[in-house]
Amino acid sequence: PSPGQPLVGLVQSLPPRLREGDAVPAVLLAAPRPCRRPRRARCSRPVSCVQREVEILMFLSAIVMMKNRRSITVEQHIGNIFMFSKVANAILFFRLDIRMGLLYLTLCIVFLMTCKPPLYMGPEYIKYFSDKTIDEELERDKRVTWIVEFFANWSSECQSFAPIFADLSLKYNCSGLHFGKVDVGRYTDVSTRYKVSTSPLTKQLPTLILFQGGTEVMRRPQIDKKGRAVSWTFSEENVIREFNLNELYQKAKKQAKPRDEGAEEAPEGQAAAGLANGETKKDK
């Protein structure tokens, strides 16, 4: 029988005068009711926390995919993944406990200050300039074409581009086409003279400038009318195409032939002395 049948029978057994008016509600209120166990309230907080964590991780994945579109080397891909993973971990730790978040953030800062990425020390055919030697070298022989990289050691983009620029110097360097580098983070007056921003948020590092006859011909990345750098990917293919390195290399070799025919080769001691006048990687 249903729970409501005993109540119906009780009401029908009452005298007619009690079934009229407000007596029935009073009887119903006085009747015993079935005892039901109270339902436990469901806690939605763990579910919402898990959903929030999943949203943070999905957002991290989207940012990493967008950043890796501009990455060139495998080191850049891995560096982007680690960097944004640290950001996501910091957010999750702060949501869990502010003390754990502060501890994790402190460890990340200590790691960033003490463990700096190594500099490129591989083979290259590049001359390093200082604030005093760059102008002298560009004006010494105007028949020589120079491709100069303006870089800073603290810039991750410059560190990723270093092996690419070194490989280009090994392939295209000749007597009429030279490659050079200058540290604008160290020589700030050079950055001001050649209009290369060294701000921590700048997109002008690294900057490649092509010099012909001692004057600037082109640079990458370009600067728009508002003084902002136009986005450009520093890959080996882009540098070869934009700077016409194959054509410059052929022209430089043709110009060098008449000079090589009438000139004698310099002794090895003089060549070593000439290299000693320029800066080395250790001087950076």
Automatic annotation (TrEMBL):
Keyword annotations of the record: Membrane, Signal, Transmembrane, Transmembrane helix
Residues covered by the Thioredoxin domain: 120-258
Region (Disordered): 254-284
Pfam family, one: Thioredoxin
UniProt GO molecular function: disulfide oxidoreductase activity; identical protein binding
GO cellular component, one term: mitochondria-associated endoplasmic reticulum membrane contact site
GO biological process: brain development
Membrane topology, as annotated: Single-pass type I membrane protein
SUPFAM superfamilies xref list: Thioredoxin-like (SSF52833)
Entries under InterPro entries matching the protein: Thioredoxin-like_sf, Thioredoxin_domain, TMX2, TMX2_thioredoxin_dom
Location in the cell: Mitochondrion membrane
Database matches in PANTHER family: THIOREDOXIN-RELATED, THIOREDOXIN-RELATED TRANSMEMBRANE PROTEIN 2
Record protein name field: Thioredoxin related transmembrane protein 2
Gene: TMX2
